[in-house]
């Protein structure tokens, strides 16, 4: 299939190459290959895309990124640097690349201002945030965005009519020591990523973020970070138990309604046809977006699987490109009309 849109595609700043190499040593089986791929925003990505029918890649700064920086001034300065850097790269290939804003999430007003700058000046298509923001004097605090303090930021997202991709990051500080240090192989895709993001987004649901901002659009990677598989049970307990105990004051709709109106999931890093079919049954093909998770996953694995998956051509087109074209209000890009 030509003209696919991929939207969980990571990059790193070249000046952090040594840090990137150290970080890659914890998960990459070929460190030098990973460093080369994640710092490239040109020929490598374009060649892979040409080979595998990806028309547009929406780029975002790699996790844990700015969310790992607990000094607010340093986090904001790096976010601005990253956004200006990737804006220059996108301008060289506007029919092949787009970008999500990188944001420091220490302060909702500052985050809103930088998002507005990136959307209005650089033409970015939204933002990607790596779960909670580290904070506090030693970085052991976590800022969640699921309370009313963050309403000015969410209001800006809806005013600009752009989505936010809520992406995972690695556990840190005392959370790491208490939960993950003795079971480190579960960090990342096997478990911790889904645990962190599902907690955060369900906090947004139950704390009324989507009721206060009904137009807000949130994207979840990896086929929904386990949530679609618990939809029946979540709905049952919310509607038949929790709302009888007071949840209805902050959560006025059902979890299925929030998925139909506010939440999207992507195929990033999760290339299983039976699992995709299950998600289509639970959340619908209209709320699913193709993605790769490059360079943590490969174009070949994602695209070869998706192009051959047992899907109707209507659903393949929706998931592969048409849903993204509507969500991001995309203009022409390579093979976009194919």
DSSP strand tally: 10
Q: Looking across the biggest beta sheet, what order are the strands in?
A: 4-7-8-9-10
What is the third-level CATH name, the topology?
TIM Barrel
- Note the gap between the termini: 8 Å
Overall shape: it is globular
Total number of helices: 14
The tally of domains stands at 1
Rg, rounded, reads 19 Å
- Estimate the mean pLDDT confidence: 96
Assign the CATH class.
Alpha Beta
CATH superfamily heading:
Metal-dependent hydrolases
Main β sheet profile = 5 strands, parallel
Could you say what the CATH architecture is?
A: Alpha-Beta Barrel
Low-confidence stretches: none
Q: Encode the helix/strand succession as letters.
A: EHHHEHEHEEEHEHHHEHHEHEHH
Helix content percent band: 40-55%
Instruction: Please state roughly what percent of the residues sit in beta strands, choosing from under 5%, 5-15%, 15-25%, 25-35%, 35-45% or over 45%.
Output: 5-15%
